[in-house]
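stage 2 :: seqdesign
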């Protein structure tokens, strides 16, 4: 195979269950990456970013499949909620326009409510309420 070039670095990756990593708590070399098989069947990755050997429990997790899946779900839920909020805004604007149009229509005419003996007229020009009682003769 020949000589190994100067500056060659071996990158070691190891895989094991979370319980084994925690049980043995080995020291990871600087730059060493380990793959953790979690109890839920998902994987996580830890990398020793330090300059010296570091115990497994002190090495940060740089990626976790369970967390990534949850973030994807949260993003989908957020997008759905944003879409629903935009639809609600559009509907609210439409209802506000309809209410404004109704208010203008009411302002332009008199509203009448008539029963057998009472006639009620709301006069929107002066804001008055006219009640006319009718009797049978």
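stage 2 :: out
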């Amino acid at each position: 195979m020949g000589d190994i070039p100067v500056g060659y670095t071996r990158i070691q990756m190891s895989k094991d269950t979370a319980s084994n990593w925690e049980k043995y708590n080995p020291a990871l070399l600087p730059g060493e990456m380990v793959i953790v098989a979690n109890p839920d069947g998902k994987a996580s990755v830890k990398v020793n970013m330090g300059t010296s050997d570091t115990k497994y429990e002190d090495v940060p997790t740089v990626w976790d499949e369970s967390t990534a899946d949850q973030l994807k779900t949260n993003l989908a839920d957020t997008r759905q909620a944003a879409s629903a909020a935009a639809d609600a805004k559009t509907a609210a604007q439409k209802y506000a326009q309809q209410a404004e149009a109704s208010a203008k229509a009411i302002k332009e005419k008199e509203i009448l409510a008539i029963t057998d003996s009472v006639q009620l007229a709301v006069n929107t020009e002066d804001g008055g309420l006219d009640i006319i009682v009718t009797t049978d003769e």
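stage 3 :: structure notes
- The chain has two domains: 13-59, 72-133.
- The CA atoms of residues 92 and 98 lie 10 Å apart.
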